[in-house]
Design goal:
92 residues; mainly alpha; 73% helix
């Protein structure tokens, strides 16, 4: 499953937990989230776990172990990587 088919980190989560304004458009944030998924998350998790989580997110059936992994590790990591990768987009 390609990363472009789903978002692990939602725009809402990014705005609520980061320093990004609520007025920031999705067309700016979504490409950054997809970049972080492809550049950082996929290599860290490996293809099997990445696809397992992607499938569960798409089906809205995330099991307990993967939910803990998402809540405690993946989402916070992605939040900070997204903030880091968004600097050039917000500079202009």
């Amino acid at each position: 499953m390609a990363a472009s088919n789903f978002l692990v980190l939602t725009e809402r989560y990014l705005k609520e937990n980061g320093i990004i304004s609520d007025n920031t458009e999705a067309k700016i944030l979504v490409p950054i989230i997809l970049l972080v998924q492809d550049k950082y998350l996929h290599p860290i998790l490996g293809t099997d776990l990445f696809e397992e989580i992607a499938t569960q997110i798409n089906a809205n059936t995330v099991d307990a172990d993967n939910q803990i992994l998402l809540d405690d590790y993946i989402l916070p990591m992605m939040l900070w990587y997204c903030l880091s990768e968004s600097t050039p987009a917000f500079k202009y």
